[in-house]
Amino acid sequence: MSETTIKAPTVAELQSKGESPEILFWVGCAGSFDDRYKRVTIAFTKILNHLGVNFAVLGPEESCTGDPARRAGNEFLFQMQAMSNIQLLDMYQVKKIVTACPHCFNTLKNEYPDLGGNYEVIHHTTFLQEMLNNGRLKIAGGDYKGQKITYHDSCYLGRANGVYEAPRELLKSLDADLVEMKRCKTKGLCCGAGGGQMFKDAEKGNKEINIARTEEALDTGAKVIAAACPFCMTMMSDGVKNKEKEQDVKVKDIAELIQESMG
Amino acid sequence: MTLITQVIFVVVMAIPTYLIVKRIRQIRGNILRGKPLDRSDQPAARWKSMLLVAFGQQKMFKKPIPAFLHLLIYVGFLVINLEVMEFMIDGLLGTHRTFAPYLGSFYNVAMNFFEFLALGVLISCVTFLIRRNVIKVPRFTKPEMKGWPAMDGNLILIIEIALMMAIFKMNAADQVLQARGVEGYHDTGRLLISSSLIPIFNLFGTGLLVFTERAAWWFHIVGIMAFALYVTYSKHLHIFLAFPNTYYSNLNAKGKIQNMDAVTNEVKSMLGLPVEAAPANPEEIGRFGAKDAPDLSWKSLMESYTCTECGRCTAECPANLTGKTLSPRKIMMDTRDRIEEIGQGKGEGKSLLGDYITKEEINACTSCNACTEACPINIDPLAIILEMKRYVAMEESGSPASWNAMFANIETNFAPWKFAPSDRFKWAEELNNEKK
Ligand code: SF4
Ligand code: SF4
């Protein structure tokens, strides 16, 4: 795919040409601004291009879904955000949304309908799993074949919405050796960033949650910790750094792993 | 039995019955102090949740050993109630083992079955006592379990052990009396478990045996009534409330937070959008979020009475696991203590948030839903925590400074971080930078 240019058209651009995308890729704040997570956004955009998916992004028109505000108790701010986002999405007649952020996914999918925003919302792991199952996405294996990978369940994907299998199926498609942590799936341990914790210091305790979780991940002996959430990514990367293991152990989003192994 | 004992029986049963009914009214009243919440939709799904989770103990089986022991007590409790029916009839009519002549040899089978269950209950209770007090399973030794809660847990186990022993004593004495041909003692056939006590009772004179048998009988039936009354003041209320509690479970995706419609109307009018027709009698808005127990929904209050204090929620809570003060079990216990206090007309000037639960506790919650997933009876501590966060954020503007900064960023930059909105699409410039 070296010759082709990678594109991320905006919905506004398409509209000016009289077109509308099949799928809206909701990038999210972390995917837009966080240097590490921007690479995930780019990886997923490459996949979408590679698969020839008819998609677009909101680009500069996108705005925070309001998830951290709502979870920190600021319902006013959440609803202000939600309603203006809904106005925008409805103006563009968006039907289907895919996002890499489980928090955006949960909010758009479960919370926007109460405020009049009804869309089909899927997480990028579910989207990729569908592409894999219908044969559009082909994995060449390669780098990760036989490698020990552990998957850290995001609370907002797993417990909050019951998505446990899609990320695991994708990892298995890499022919990787998927090793589970002591706590996984319904019993997965939070990375410590949800509920607005990302945006403030932790309360006094005897350990940081992300350190506890990183220890569980390192205990598996995996060389790659796979994540599917921007917050988890940050927390696990910080944990690995704290343990001075960043040379041996990589934290990667599933979209990155897939993009690297695409046939 | 004489008429006198029948009269005594009626009086002895009437007193606890009266007290229990009064107590149930009180609890119901306390629950109804909560805010309205509609949980009447999808009856089929609700019945299913009740049958699986409460009746079928589905979520208990995440931990197989306690689940099995708990199941023994649960089944024992349900089935032994059949025997209590006979007790009641005997007590009222002044008969002895009313059912024996009608059931014939089946009576022996039934009694043996009951004894078998009673033994199961006994063994489970002893094991649970050991787990709590000798092995000290960590979730039973958290700070909120000091004092009365630990005592409550032990008391109930001891009462159950005593009640089961009474059955064995009664049956053993009865069998000796039958063997001696004393009049009025129906043939029950050999009762396998209690008959092991016969060598001891054989040493007793007939008079003492009759007394022992009656004493055990009265102890058992009065004990059950006292137990039933005690339960209404104890965490063991879950034996009844688990059923309605799971019926009214939250059926939404766990990640979904309940919308605040009062806020929706305000936001809509701020944005100049049409506001839904106001209800005919707009109920007073009240406060946003919860400062005190009655600000919570009735369901949260019911859950506080249903909580068994098992601590499975706390054992999974990431905040608690890393030494923070937050314990979802404590949230439930505090809520119950506070609504009880309010029900008794006490504690004026106090409130749930502040006097029972601190901001430090609620601020530590990551909204991860590990607690709601772990709870064997679908209790939702997160709902209470969230309502209190709402109160702090919207009524007090008392959220941690860094959260207020995050709110400000969302308001002005449309992202929780302080980045210029115009930079939001910058990542696209990097799309074609790499060679690959
Ligand atoms: S939702 Fe909050 S209280 Fe419940 S387990 Fe997670 S951090 Fe603990
Ligand atoms: S809320 Fe549920 S899990 Fe937690 S202590 Fe109470 S009954 Fe146990």
Task: Sum up the structure in keywords.
heterodimer; A: 263 residues; alpha/beta; Rossmann fold; 4-stranded parallel β-sheet; 43% helix; B: 436 residues; mainly alpha; Fumarate Reductase Iron-sulfur Protein, Chain B, domain 2; 19 helices; elongated; binds iron/sulfur cluster
In terms of topology, how is this protein built?
The complex is a heterodimer of chains A (263) and B (436).
Chain A: H1 11-16, E1 23-26, H2 28-33, H3 35-51, E2 55-56, H4 67-71, H5 75-91, E3 96-99, H6 102-111, E4 120-123, H7 124-133, E5 148-151, H8 165-173, E6 177-179, H9 209-219, E7 224-227, H10 230-242, E8 250-253, H11 254-261
Parallel strand pairs in A: 1-2, 1-3, 3-4, 5-6, 5-7, 7-8
Helix pairs in contact in A: 3-11, 7-8, 9-10
Chain B: H1 3-31, H2 43-55, H3 64-93, H4 100-103, H5 105-133, H6 148-179, H7 198-201, H8 206-231, H9 238-247, H10 261-270, H11 298-306, H12 312-316, H13 318-321, H14 328-343, H15 352-356, H16 359-363, H17 370-374, H18 381-395, H19 401-413
Bound molecules: iron/sulfur cluster (2 copies).
Pfam families (chain A): CCG
Protein name (chain A): (Fe-S)-binding protein
Organism (chain A): Reichenbachiella agarivorans
